[in-house]
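Researcher: Structure for this, please.
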Amino acid sequence: MAKIAMVAGEASSDQLAAHLIGALKQHLPDAKFYGIGGPKMQREGFESLWPAETLAVRGYAEVLRHYRAITAMRRQLLRRLLKDRPDVFIGVDGSDFNLWLEKRLKRSGIPTIHFVSPSIWAWRKNRMDKIIQSVSHILALYPFEPDLYKGTAVKCSYVGHPLADVIPLEIDQRAVRERLDVAADRPVIALLPGSRQSELYFMAETFVETAKLLLERYPGLQFLVPLVSRETRLQFETALWKLKADELPFTLMFGHAADAVAASDAVLVASGTATLETALVGRPMVIAYKMSPWSWRLMRSMRYLPWVGLPNILAGRYCVPELLQDEATPENLAQALGNLLVDRQARAGIARVFDSIHRLLRQDTAQKAADAVLPYLQRA
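Model: Predicted structure, token format:
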């Protein structure tokens, strides 16, 4: 029986890993999958030895607060894997956690696969040596990434992005609105403030204040707010109460982010995988992000691309606004979203760019990733 160890600590990683597990099970129905993973992986039969939420922190200051718990868990997992000797280890994103683990597993003779190339094209390119020492094979989501590894000992396969396979190329907005009981002629904005509690801590009130300003200018607006957990829902509800906005037209949803985006006319979204999902659904967006001032100074000093949002990176130009840290004020965000609401020509141009991105990333990712993993298991 094949033994496949995996670590996926965030909501987006959980989804990527779940698709890969499903594809591998078609070839290896008796395989054992275990390590650290979320609910989608567990529904595929994955055994999570620790809660994935422990790893779902972002920003240097936030990681430092949880450092002791995270490192203790990582050391325990390493001891377990060195004893169990899985046939392959797959780290899904989470490079700060996984590369440390992969380096030690690779040194012990266990093949290591990293699903999602670390963002050396955006910042921290000095990590290439660490990647080479740690990883046997990279599964890259974006077509420009394999060239980064040419001439190194790391094999890199472009597999596309699974969201591009799952999300249809065309979505009937009216049908989605009927399903969500949203009026067909009502202007709608989706608010996606993040999947982590640390993101809501910095952005929930800003998103609510932005919505209040928009309602002053466009009184008929409705806001759809998909949230991934009870904890993040409570944080957003607290922000509504604190800012006296709990009676305003906010519809809070458990999950169903793609539906909320599909029903909307424009989206305010925290930087991350949700920006790609919004692009694949084909809706114009404004990208926002805030973190602790200390984390922001460190991140900004290492960044060298002019964009942080995946839609802009993939397009190779600014196609949607990015308002980060001190620029992410309710006034600026409301102005940018208002511009999108009234400018149909701009929305149509953005939709054409997003359609090209969708077709580029639509590669039957789960099967391509499984095809790259299977030779390691067959050799074992």
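Researcher: Any notable elements?
Model: The chain has a mean pLDDT of 89. The first strand starts at residue 3 and ends at 7.
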